[in-house]
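Format notes (please read before filing issues)

Several people have asked whether sequences and structure tokens are stored in separate files. They are not. Every record keeps both together, in the order shown below: the sequence lines, then the token lines. Line labels are part of the format and must not be stripped during preprocessing.
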Amino acid sequence: MLREFMNLWKKESLCESAWQSCLIMLRQSRDMFRDAVASLQEDRPLSIDIYARDREINRFERKVRRNIATHLAVSTNPDVNNALILTAIVIDIERIGDITKNIVELASAHTAVFHGGEIKGEITTIEATVSQMFDALLQSLEDSDVDRARQIIGDHQIIADRVEDCIRDMIAGKIMKEDSSTAVTAALYLRYLKRVSAHLKNVATGVVNPFYRIGFREKPDAQGVKN
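Then the structure lines:
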């Protein structure tokens, strides 16, 4: 859906500014996420002021809303559908910053290096996938790459399933029975990773879906083609 958006809106300064603000927000969220993960896994100080960066992302979100509102108010031929898509995905990008703060707070509470217990390998794989999803999403948005967006959506489903499997094993007492600190940290951390993945997936759906299906799977048409 965003290919036409990019071609048309590059001609309008307000819309181009809003679009570039979204990309900046996503890049900043990616850097925040990676720094927060390192602070938990390596027990090291943050290299980014997470709270200051989060406030900056909030300012960008307000700027996007203001530019879109102005475009809709003054344009003689406003692109309402894509304006709505942009205002929807900027919310998901902003919320990633909030979850990043949760990871930082978890790292602060867990005063030692987080080793992950019996599921260290699983957690490391999920972390790496989420981190890669940021780069893939930026590329998908910049190129209006539908196939890459679909891959992100698929990656989220895999992450969601793996997270739930790990948490069920912890609840059932199959793993980490003797290490409650690691178990609690792992359960919270896995949930945060899943939520970041979900917001990235929601943004990716803006590449393949119209506004009213943002956050949902593509709906096949009568010929079975997704749209």
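For reference, the curators noted about this record: The chain has one domain: 2-213. The longest helix spans residues 80-109.
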